[in-house]
Amino acid sequence: MTEPHPSLSTGPTRRSALRAAGGGTLLLGLGLAGCRSAVSETSSGSGDAGASPRRGGTLDVAVNSDFTPGLLFSQSGQSYQHRLIYNTLTRYDDRLRPRPELATSWTYAKDGRGITLRLRDDVTFHNGRKFTADDVIFAVKNLQNPVRAAQLRSTAATITGFEKRGDHELVLKLAHPVNNLFDLFEFMIITDPETVEDAVTGRKLIGTGPFELKKWSPGSGLSLTRHDGYWQPGRPYLDGVELRVIPQADALISSLRSGQSQLSFNVPGKSLGTVKDDPGLTITTYDTGSGAVYIGVNTTVAPLDDRAVRQAIAWAVDRERLLAQALGGYGLASAAPWPKSSPAFTEAHRTHYTHDAGKARELLRSAGHSKLELPLLHLALPGDTAIAEALQYDLRQVGIHVTLQPTDPATAQKKLISQDMPALWTMGHGFSQVQPSTLAVSAYPFNEKKNTSKYRSADYTAVVQEAWTKPESSAAQANALHEKISGILLDEAFIIDLVVRGQVQVAADGLRGVTLNKFSYLNLDHAYLV
Predict the structure, then answer these.
(1) Position 332 pLDDT exceeds 60
(2) Quick check: 126 and 120 in contact, CB under 8 A?
């Protein structure tokens, strides 16, 4: 099949601009109308919506943790800069339909074991070198390298051959069909092969994106300047971007309210109520569910090797209270990982576990326990600490006493990748916002072959592999496979989902044109300040 070359515009999408000054009703739950698509290109602020784009100015983005070069090729909380410096082959619209970026069009082989990509011929890297098919080949091989710790390495590994047809047409040959190839194309940043080893140490970040790296100051942030040779005519509007590290919540909020920073995705949930009272700031929610909150369980640590104990934890948590108190009401309480936009979502899965302390105690007693003492790792950030403290309270009510282990984000991510987590941990996960199979073949907590919980199951592997490698399945067949995957996740409870949550953006009222892709890469191609 041949995909046409549609406009870069994705058309109308759902969004919410929540401003206390306007007296509007706060919409809780990402599934409600009013939430914004992850690929929406509507304006960020709600002030003078008819203003023409203005060129110039530097956007200050407040982030709560620094760029980690070693995680450049994996998706994490430090991925905002990816789409500023780099491009991807394609991007999804709000209906999970791939749209052109560096690839202009594509044709699948009839047997699903190949795809022909036609590439842009007017793209240059920041160092002046022309973008060609060789750069796509390198990008795929780079993700196949286990050293890169890329979540979609399994999908990249299905690409076993390359056939160049000139500099700007490439055939990718697959070992077997997969249904998440375009997840890979949106995830995979196109880097300069000659400087990739400098990139993973932070010395040079050379891509084809709208901004070039001016300076990385470890602990302070990234300074980016406009790439004058960008392939999109007249873009970007901004002269530069500063990603400034402000780990303290009060200081981050103060920076936004004073106008020193104009954008952040890191305001803690419990502080959003304060922010929404500021008439100069706008809160926008993204409905992708790309930041779901969960409890991870190391199934090799007794007594967590007992499914009944894991299920007790799932019943013990008051998800609605967690959502209201620690997350400011932004999200959807859910026992399953799927946002409402996912084809795998069902209301029955979402409500499979609700708060029932009595049932939790009963399960613990049936497993021979009246009191447990366990560690709980969490990120040493204000919002994550609030989540961990709420979980600590709920678990204590059923006899599970947890000791909190605050950990810096880079160390926690490395522990997640290396399967070096303690008995319990709480973090956020993505990958439920794209093809459902991607979650179970790519996300570290869920990976059917090698997950952080060290959970293994032949049944889980079989159903995940079938869902992943059968792109020709009918909707009914796909739904049946999604049902099986969800059933295993809920019953085995090696990952205990709590709240499905997209990104929550806080922006100055004079900022326009901000968007995120499905993997929370910040896109400022069309952003401007008024």
Answers:
(1) yes
(2) no
Per the listing, tokens 């795809």 go with: 115
Indicate the pairing of strand 332-333 with strand 103-108. Answer: unpaired
Per-residue pLDDT of 107-137, as tens digits, reads 999 999 999 999 999 999 999 999 999 999 9
In a 13 Å sphere around the CA of 95, the CA atoms on its Cβ side amount to 5
**DSSP structure string for 467-492:** HHH-TT--HHHHHHHHHHHHHHHHHH
Whole-number Å distance between alpha carbons of 93 and 99:
7
Q: E strand or H helix at 403, and its extent?
A: strand 400-407
Kindly compute the dihedral angle of the four CA atoms of residues 277, 519, 298, 247, in this order, to the nearest 10 degrees.
-40
Report the candidate in 316, 349, 315 with the shortest Cα–Cα distance to residue 334: 349
* Phi and psi, residue 286, nearest 5°: -105, 135
Alpha-helix runs per DSSP H in 211-306: 249-258, 272-275
Give this prediction's pTM: 0.86
Judged by DSSP in three states, 515 sits in strand
At a CB cut-off of 8 Å and minimum separation 6, what does 263 contact? Answer: 44, 59, 60, 61, 62, 505, 506, 507, 508, 511, 514
The dihedrals phi and psi of 245, each to the nearest 5 degrees, come to -80, 120
